[in-house]
Write a structure and sequence with these properties.
The structure is a homodimer. With about 425 residues, chain A is an alpha/beta fold. Helix content of chain A is about 50%, strand content about 10%. The mean pLDDT of chain A is about 95.
């Protein structure tokens, strides 16, 4: 029995078919349990469901065919790796971040158990020979955004981009130099020199993807969002591992549907519920656990302050540069503006959270912290101080990908939801 | 009842006397249990025992008097903060790293439980008002060597020195700029401009401290070391929080005694035992658990590859610079040569470990990893690869400051010791 019709290709790619079948089955179950719980989904979300399924089949075949035709690709883990530059050199970036709990324990061959599930999931797939992308790249580019990843790259001999830890002038210069080296690296892989014309096209293309995500997420600001937090996450999860024009076309269809829904007063949510901003670590494809815990408990996740949320699409690259150097600088500037918790201090993030609360009408903040992620965990305290000053309550969830603690989480989430409802009722009574 | 005769002063410094008494009692018990287990100690180790005791009494009084007389001081946590520069500006650096398990849980007010015990111990003392140094400084200078510390500094509003993550030209430039800013910072605190003459004196003084530690640790290379690993650790722990001339004088006395012991064939160890290099995270004052677990199980810790070991004293600052700029550059260079696991890649550390194995005649390596220290934990795998190539076995210990797992550790350590003895017997048989 073929799991998804791509057994021949997967075998060729060194995938352990028996284990892979089990992985795909596990992922389908989780997908059905989480995203399948959304009632009244936009019909055009179907494409995004299919894209998740395709990430272990059709998309693999696409990339394999692209590579057979001479195309080059790299694996990446972080939104700090400048996609515009890779694309302009004819190198396709493939995001490798793992979101499945299935593979977490397979990471034990090399990694400690007390590092974040994202890293363990990713390398668990590689070590168990279930990652279909393992042989579909010419190199892997990591970065220094956290201790565990930084040292993982050393251990595995990957390329490493140094993301600085402050945002001073020399930090900008250092990062610009890293971006330039990355350009040389991808040019070296493909043998294609990056031209200003091609780079401009790629800047515009990547900006379109970000702007499209802004538009979709903009609908979540409405009093009755036509798209749920779960579905908005799904769109973001799919964004980075799809042919960009195909992704944009599917998004346009979704946007039309969302517009129609707004006109007709159709909400993604069945009953009323408090609006929360989810802040912190990313939820890569395969993991929607905290979104699910929140929305299945009657809360509305109206904004994602994460790398699978606004951190990826908040800022566009300035398109006005005329020459290659100017474009590279604009790209470096844009990436340095990301408010990752790797920076010290990270005051921009505090300001962004406060602004998002207003823009999305959030009544509370839920910190979503992957286990053992020190930076977002400690930084949640900094955020909480700012929230206390504006009287916005928060709940901190520290968890991994396992569903073992789901019911415990839901108890906490429901209490938090009640607190938000009570506050909202007080506000109404007082006005 | 006064715990140590300094109650009046401690009260003045805002110390909670009841809790502090409990802390001191706890620390004494641990000191007796660990260092007190060493048989046949050099008589001159007494001074170092007293120095530990004085760290909660006499030394506090010294620093308080120094400050009352107008002296300035800063708290530090890491050997990356250039002590020569602080001293040259008339600012005394006080190392604040906590090594006591007593205070660990008091850190919960701000910090996650799953960060390293060193950070939790340090801030647990601050939050429980048992750290006598809390009010004895004009500022605190942290650095970016790990995620948890970096974000802790943000949360607490400390000065932060950016230690880069690679060792390229721009990284060196960035670090030099940080060192220059640090100089401005300490000059600002004291109002004393750093002169070349004074800086040279302080470079020489700090170099003397490092060279003295080199000499003491050099005795551990001998087939029968006249000083145990535990006692050598104690010397290092005391080194940074003592008046330097007094420390150097005590060290000279110890060195004389060690020389006499060597002449008379007196070993610090009673029976034979395998020689191991202890590699990884530091053991700040109050924590000698892993050294104790090893040496009380019959192993000989003959070298410390840590920040409370060779990482502090391996490299001296080049003393040949003529002007201030040259001295600052020499200082920056020397600190950048430290092989902290915060660097990517950290190949120097691998080379250093291999060299130390030869120099100290180590038969095996024990990785000493503080719980949740991602960088040293993951990097131990990189080290292990290099060790496998030269057929040196290793044991990884991941633990905190608690003695709860001591017996478990000892079981593992004893097995490792047996393995080393068996290998040594084989080598003898084969030769």
């Amino acid at each position: 029995m073929e799991a998804n019709g791509y057994d021949g290709l997967l075998r060729e790619l060194g995938v352990d078919l028996t284990l892979h079948r089990d992985l795909v089955r596990y992922n389908r179950d989780i997908h059905r349990r989480t995203f399948g719980s959304v009632r009244n989904r936009p019909a055009s979300m179907r494409w995004f469901d299919d894209a998740v399924e395709a990430s272990h089949g059709g998309r693999v075949a696409e990339i394999a065919a692209y590579r057979k035709a001479g195309g080059r690709s790299i694996g990446t883990f972080c939104i700090y790796v400048p996609e515009e530059i890779a694309l302009a050199a004819g190198v396709l970036p493939i995001p490798l971040c793992g979101g499945t709990n299935w593979s977490v324990d397979y990471a034990d061959r090399m990694f400690p158990r007390d590092i974040c599930p994202l890293i363990r999931s990713t390398f668990g797939m590689a070590f168990s020979n279930t990652c279909p992308y393992k042989k579909l790249h010419d190199g892997v580019v990591g970065e220094t955004t956290c201790d565990a990843k930084k040292k993982a790259w050393d251990l595995l001999g990957f390329q490493v981009m140094e993301v600085p830890q402050k945002k001073g002038d020399l930090d900008h210069a250092l990062w610009l130099s890293e971006v330039r080296q990355f350009l040389k690296y991808v040019e070296g892989l493909s043998g294609v020199a990056v031209t200003p014309e091609r780079l401009r096209e790629c800047i515009i293309l990547a900006n379109r993807r970000r702007a499209t995500l802004q538009r979709i997420n903009g609908f979540r600001r409405l009093p009755e969002p036509p798209i749920s937090g779960l579905d908005a996450l799904l769109v973001s999860q799919v964004a980075l591992n799809q042919d960009i024009p195909a992704f944009l076309a599917a998004c346009e269809e979704l946007i039309h549907e969302l517009e129609r829904r707004v006109q007709r007063g159709i909400s993604a949510y069945q009953g009323p519920g408090p609006r929360v901003l989810l802040a912190g670590t990313p939820s890569p494809m395969g993991n929607a656990k905290v979104h699910y815990a929140l929305e299945s408990s009657g809360l509305r996740v109206v904004a994602d302050e994460s790398c699978t949320g606004i951190r990826y699409y908040r800022d566009l690259v300035d398109e006005s540069a005329e020459d290659l150097d100017g474009m590279i600088e604009a790209i470096a500037d844009r990436y340095m503006s990301i408010d990752c918790s790797c920076f010290s201090p990270n005051t921009e993030r505090v300001e962004h959270v406060l602004r998002m609360i207003k823009e999305y009408g959030a009544e509370g903040v839920v910190h979503n912290i992957l286990s053992f992620c020190h930076t977002y965990n400690v930084e949640s305290k900094v955020i909480d101080r700012a929230l206390a000053a504006v009287h916005v309550p928060s709940l901190k969830i520290v968890t991994d990908y396992s569903f073992e603690d789901l019911e415990q989480l839901k108890v906490r989430v429901e209490s938090f939801g009640e607190l938000l409802c009570a506050r909202s009722a007080e506000t109404v009574a007082a006005s």
